[in-house]
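Input record (one chain):
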Amino acid sequence: MQTGIDPRSLIGRRAFDRNGMKIGTVDEVYLDDATGEPEWAAVRTGLFSRDAFVPLEPSEFGEDGLRVPFDKALIKDAPDFGVGRHLSPEQELQLYHHYGMSGPGAFPGPGDEPPPDRDFGKLAGDS
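The corresponding structure, as predicted from the sequence alone:
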């Protein structure tokens, strides 16, 4: 995602999948604990639906809203951790794994296979 974007400007904006299908509306934005940069958006997927977490990197923010480079079905199947709470490192790893990413900004390019299941190793701070 472009840097220098005020995360508050995302809230209430429409979100679209990679095919231009509307996913929903951005409900909340979550910042990275270490950098303070926007890392995840919680997208309300319908009036009576839950919020689905989507990675802001490699998503793009434009005049029409947030464009997420994943299919709507994958987004709606993302792990549900509820909103309004801090995401733990374990929950973030589950989300990265769900989207086929090995970590922040690690998105496979066009035609690349998602990374195989692997052990992510110890979390920072674990002994």
